[in-house]
Amino acid sequence: MLDRSKAPEFKIPSSIEFPTPIQRTLPNGVHLYFIPTPEIDAVKLEISSTINETSNSKLLVPYFALEMVTEGTLTKDAATLDDFFDTYASEVETESGFENHGLSILTTKKHFDKVLPVYRELLTEAIFPDKELTKRKKQKALSIHINRDKNSHRASQLFRKALFGENHPFGQITEEKDVDLVYREDLIEFYKKDLWTNSEIFLTGNLDDSQLENIIREIGNIPVAFFQNPTTGFPNQKHQRVAEEKEKSVQSSIRIGCHLIPKNHPDYFKLNLMNTILGGYFGSRLIKNIREDKGHTYGIYSSIGGLKNADYWVVMADVIKEHDEAVIDEVYMEIDKLKNEPVSAHELEVVRNYMIGKLLSQFSSGFELIGRFKSIHQAGLDFGFYQQNLDYILHAKPEDVMEVANKYLHREKMVEVIVG
Amino acid sequence: MINYQQFVLDNGLQVLVHEDRSTKIAVLNILYKVGSRNEVTGKTGLAHYFEHLMFGSSKNVPVFDTELEKVGGSCNAFTNTDITNFYITLPATNIETAFWLESDRMLQLNLSEKTIEAQRKVVIEEFKQRYINQPYGDVHHHIRGLAYERHPYQWPTIGKNLEDIVNYQKADVEEFYFTHYRPDNAVMVVAGDVTLEQVKILSEKWFGSIPLGKISKNPVLQELPQGKKKTKVVEADVPTDALYKVYHMPGKLQDGYLESDLITDILGFGRSSILEQQLVKNGNLFASIGAYIFGTVDPGLLVFSGKMEKGQPAELAEKALDEVVATFLSSTVSENTLTKIKNQAEAMKIYESVQLLNRAMSLAYYAHLGNPDYQQLEYEKKIKIPSEEIIKQANKILVEENSSVVYYKAKN
Fold first, then answer.
1. For residue B122, what is the enclosing H or E element?
2. From edge to edge, which strands make up the β-sheet containing A31-36?
3. Chain A within 8 Å of B91 (Cβ-Cβ)?
4. Cβ neighbours for A183, distance < 8 A, ≥ 6 positions apart
5. 3-state helix, strand, coil in chain B (%, to 5)
6. What does the DSSP 8-state code read for residue B255?
7. Smallest CA–CA separation between A172 and chain B, in Å?
8. What CA–CA distance (Å, rounded) separates B252 from B382?
């Protein structure tokens, strides 16, 4: 007779294989990182640049410059490009982040050779026609308006503004009127001077040597500028509360957070563990308390935001309007518990094993590894970061959690935002 | 094609095994053949709410998530109109824990008062977060409510309104469990670094003794053919008008389904599609437009949904859409377009099979329809359909009497 009360035996892996990407350098100085996936017939090629923080271009100019590269080149108009990429089932995607921007293409091994030269055209031959720009501006203005009406979107904007300051690009909020100020000339200037800066190539898929050589040849001749951004530190300010009342809202979107430390800091892995326990997974204390016990929300999470020199910590939730203050108090109460009571051996075991399992599964699907590599590489690190994290998790102690909670989480330095 | 082997336990549980030795993880996916289509008026949203209850406790498992996290696993689930699907990802060495957890909640779920009340609150907040507190959030409530009159597809999976969720009784929940959460109403897929032999032994060990369901499922009330065009005007505090025009179309396994799917591929898929090129890129009424189908088991909907540019009325946009559709009805689909669609379908299969979890879910879904090979068969059939069959189907369903239109108007 089967004894269901007894859980099956289990084993937690103590090592995970972290692959090393193949590295090449193009004639123009661009580094290429390639993770082959012989079993998957898809290809993803991405060029990613560092944003020049001193270049002072207008808001939205990088966004429109990238979006517009598929709206016409010297040899092909917008409709031709649309038809070409759709015919070969290829998706051109743009990245416009705070620190990096770029252009990627997802295609199949079968169509890669045809698609590469046209993708190459987008990098330097775009012409930015007015008609398409006019339409894109109207679309963007509308989406800014719709997003502004979403509490969670608005709360994130206000949080970043309070945290980084409205004069820093990370803290600026784009508005509809910013769209009006973008002109074709701005895009052309940006495209020539500021788009391909410190660029690197991230590549994955089933590619043979000659296809790799093609990429090196095609992209090896685009002009790329190299420079160094100033290192900016963000000290925490004193406590701030930002509230935006919306009469008709049935829920409030809340954010609580502060600046943290960069990923190469010795405390980083401890903080990552502490964050996971507090709000970083479904078994977290915030989920158990605010969702499963009180039912004040559908979801509440905390996370460490990834910026190169300025990682920040934030709690996010959409909660019952009448209970917003109560939820904020509960968050601080949970933080105080972490500061004052050691995590039990059982909870530490659960979270440790969960984190190792998650890591194993994140490194099990070949096609996504390049994205993971890209983000850690752009933070100035490599896959050794994950190995160190694994080594740390295996030996984490309850005192570590208390130590970093006491060191980094202080109510008097937190930014709090309520929208709704 | 996704490789698999399958067997059925004596209690009717269908099991599929997809071996992939290139990974060190495993996925256990269980699909229950129940969704909002199995609900009745007054108890809408019950299928989705029940999915939440499955993460409470069962006789031998105090907290589902904790036991799974302890062995390095994570899980989630979703409910739609037709199915409820639960999935676990974990180190393959610990696959037996997934069998233990899933079998215990299939056999003996604890429907405690505490879980019932806590999840009722959580689902109410989910309803508010997704469908009330968002611009255009309630649009699917309007579309479904207008297009369907008898079939349970007339409400979205979250439920028709908050009141229904507030009013579920313990008896409703228990009846739902004993009717639908049975081995003969489920498909299990085990994928990743596992073997057929291993899965056979573990399935028999953990699921073999779970009894068959005793309560028979009620038949689903089917929709009658629509006789005339239906319209509804909704006014809301949104920045711009939106237009939703839907047409009834065949269910997933019925004749004409793939042709209908192709209609939306041609009209609305990608930046080179007819609607995007004519109405968005070269027009001043639409800021965006899409075309897609509800690929449901029972007859579904073919949907055109668009947002207008600021100040442009949805009624005018409908006229422009109708003109493009009318031209399509008397056209021929070019060879180039058919090639494009074929390439898209082929690439989509590659992109979608990158993830182990997607492969497992896909096998479970097609097995629930009756044959795990359907995905491949559907693909092969779809890429051979000639222009005249597509246009013929379009002329059959894209007619005014078969349409329902929601004009979602910006106040002021």
1. helix B113-127
2. A22-25, A31-36, A200-205, A42-50, A100-108, A91-96
3. yes
4. none
5. 45, 20, 35
6. T
7. 22
8. 13
Q: Whole-angstrom Cα distance, residue B15 to residue B364?
A: 9
The distance of A101 to chain B (nearest Cα, Å) reads 22
Tell me the pLDDT tens digit for each residue of A339-352.
999 999 999 999 99
Closest CA to B201 of B337, B61, B99: B99
Q: Which pLDDT score, from 0 to 100, does residue A152 have?
A: 96
* Structure-token pair, residue A407: 């060191």
Give the C-alpha separation, A399 to A382, whole Å: 28
Asked if the model's pLDDT at residue A56 lies above 90, the reply is no
Element (H, E) at A259: strand A251-259
pLDDT by residue (tens digit) across A86-114?
Answer: 999 999 999 998 899 999 999 999 999 99
Asked whether the beta carbons of residue B70 and residue A251 sit closer than 8 angstroms, the reply is no
B412 touches chain A (CB under 8 A): no
Decide if pLDDT at A364 tops 90: no
* Chain A residues lying within 8 Å of B94, measured CB to CB: 8, 10-11
With H, G, I as helix, E, B as strand and everything else as coil, classify residue B7: strand
Residue B301 is predicted with a pLDDT of 98
Q: Which residue bears the tokens 């391909």?
A: A196
pTM: 0.95
CA–CA dist A324, A242 (Å, integer) = 13
Other beta carbons within 10 angstroms of residue B68's beta carbon come to: 29
Taking chain B (412 residues) in runs of 10, the rounded mean pLDDT of each run is 96 97 96 97 98 96 96 98 98 98 97 94 95 95 98 98 97 96 97 98 98 88 96 96 98 98 96 97 97 97 98 98 98 96 94 93 98 95 97 98 98 82
Residue in A with minimal Cα distance to B353: A40
Q: Which residues of A127-164 are buried (b: 16+ CB within 10 A; e: fewer)?
A: bbeeebbebbbebbbbbbbbebbbbbebbbbbbbbbbb
Using an 8 Å Cβ cutoff, are A401 and A270 in contact? yes
d(CA B44, CA B49): 9
Of residues A108, A135, A248, nearest to B347 (C-beta): A108
A268 three-class SS: helix
Residue B370 backbone phi and psi in degrees, to 5 = 130, -15
Q: Write the CA distances from A225 to A46, A194, A307, B91, integer angstroms.
A: 17, 8, 22, 44
Residues of B in contact with A420 (CB under 8 A): 133
Around Cβ A170, how many Cβ atoms within 10 Å? 18
Query: Helices (DSSP H) in A77-174: which residue ranges?
Result: 78-87, 109-124, 130-148, 151-164
B69 vs A357: CA distance, rounded Å = 8
Are B71 and A10 a contacting pair at CB < 8 A?
yes
Q: d(Cα A351, Cα B71) in Å, to the nearest integer? A: 10
B201 touches chain A (CB under 8 A): no
Q: What is the pLDDT of residue A237?
A: 85
Best of A1, A6, A37, A87 to mutate (most B CBs within 10 Å, chain B): A87
Burial of A73 (0-12, 13-18, 19+ CB in 10 A): buried
How many CB atoms neighbour CB B381 within 10 A? 12
Q: Is A143 helix (H, G, I), strand (E, B) or coil?
A: helix
Give CA–CA dist A10/A354, Å, rounded.
13
For residues A230 and A260, give the distance between their C-alpha atoms in angstroms, rounded to a whole number.
19
As a whole number of angstroms, the distance between CA A171 and CA A158 comes to: 8
Token pair 């092909």: residue: A76
* Partner residue opposite A89 with nearest CB, options B126, B287, B343: B343
**Dihedral of CA A179/A184/A185/A190: which sign?**
positive
Judged by CB atoms closer than 8 Å, whether chains meet at A146 and B74 is answered as no
Q: Give the Cα separation of B22 and B190 in Å (integer).
A: 15
